[in-house]
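The instructor's notes for this session suggest beginning with a concrete chain rather than abstract definitions. Hand out the sequence below and ask the class to guess, before any prediction is shown, which regions might be ordered.
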Amino acid sequence: MKTRNILILATSAIILAVVSFWIGQQAYSWLPPEAAAESILVDRLFSFLVTLGAFIFLGVTGALTYSIIFHRAAKYDMSDGPSIEGNITLEIVWTAIPFVLVLWIALYSYQIYDQMSILGPMEHHHMSMGMKSAIAEPISETSETSKTAQISPERIPERIQVTAKQWAWVFNYPGQNISSTELHLPVNQRAYLTLRSEDVIHGFYIPAFRVKQDVIPNEIINFEFTPILEGKYRLRDSQYSGTYFAAMQADVVVESPEKYQQWLELASKREPSPAFNQAASEYDRKSNQAINSGWVTVKPAQPPVVNYH
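After discussion, reveal the predicted structure:
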């Protein structure tokens, strides 16, 4: 009987592991496309956490369901259950397993965080070009991409200056004297940015890249990532920065190096002009119609004057 129970338990654990692994693989389809090398690292971690969570959830739910069906008391059985004082072995096991799992998750998460090279609040203004490249480990479908994404130190390009303000993103390319409300990047090349805020804390967040960095007033923050998939993506403000923060979005265009150079040439020939700004437009429209309520409303910054918008 004991051997039979062990076999049943082992078989159930194997089935649970297979089902949980399948659920973890489905987690890749729950997220935006992997458009940056960092997204591959984050998605692996997310899939791992989903797999582990599914195994625990199905295991606990299955054990409860089995107990309810096969070990419930008879209809008129009002007697007490057996008196069990404790089981030292069981208590050690159910204490050790969660400890090991939490330690495993922590170490794996730290490894991913370290590979992505996201700087902490005390590091970003002390380290400029010394950060490691967050290139995903080669896998079958992206091995060539990962190789081409690496840039040697002597070929590090000039940093793109990113300015956040209530409520607009402005991107400056100093070498070409270009300012834009769109962030253009060449595919498979390391992107080097400097982030700064003119007013409050903002959050530089591109969901398709799985990268996020708080932009702190009075700080110049160096930030890096590697786009690997051409397309147009969305930059959002991940921090609540005031009334119109939801309108603080911008397009991120990842294109081939040839198209990127063409865009630089086109934008450099344009005369700067005020760009449309949703926050400023809504504020002006409401200010002309609103009744004075006595509440102070933060006025948006003036629409940015840029070459390209």
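Then share the key points. The chain has six helices and twelve strands. The chain has a mean pLDDT of 83.
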